[in-house]
Amino acid sequence: MDAVPERVGEPVGVRAVCAHCNAYLHCCRNCDFYTPGVADDCREPNAERVADKEQGNFCDYFRPPAAAATGTGPTQVARAQLAALFAKKTPEPTKR
Fold first, then answer.
1. Where are the domains of the chain?
2. What is the distance between the alpha carbons of residues 11 and 15, in angstroms, rounded to a whole number?
3. Are the C-beta atoms of residues 26 and 64 closer than 8 Å to each other?
4. What would you measure as the largest C-alpha separation in the chain, in angstroms?
5. 15 contacts 56 by C-beta, under 8 angstroms
6. pTM for the complete prediction?
7. How far apart are CA 52 and CA 91, in angstroms?
8. Using CA atoms, how far apart are residues 35 and 2, in angstroms rounded to an integer?
9. DSSP letters for the chain
């Protein structure tokens, strides 16, 4: 199995796996073209059909989601808002 890319923007190898859950990274579910409900769940018309969307594959059209690379996707925004909500704030000193 390939190592996980060290930095955002590095190519994802076809056998790269997540260090935490051991799931394949180069799979349909992690592709920008993946859209449930469209033909073969893929917006790329030239891509070959892949039966198991969570298994690693050799699709030449694989592209990690752009939002994940920039850190501005809905998940990243929600996590940042949640972190800000629960961030420890130092109390202001009371003035007399």
1. 1-87
2. 12
3. no
4. 72
5. yes
6. 0.59
7. 52
8. 26
9. -BPPPSSTTSPPPTTBB-TTT--BSSSGGGSTTB-TTSGGGBS-TTSPP-S-TTS----TT----HHHHHT-SHHHHHHHHHHHHT---PPPPP--
β-strand partners of 17: 24
pLDDT averaged over 10-residue windows placed end to end, the chain, 96 residues: 52 84 91 92 93 92 73 73 79 69
Residue 46 has a pLDDT of 94
Asked whether 24 and 54 are in contact (CB, 8 A), the reply is yes
The structure tokens listed for 15 are 């056998």
Among 20, 29, 22, residue whose Cα is nearest residue 63: 29
pLDDT value, residue 27: 93
Q: What would the two tokens of residue 45 be?
A: 């018309």
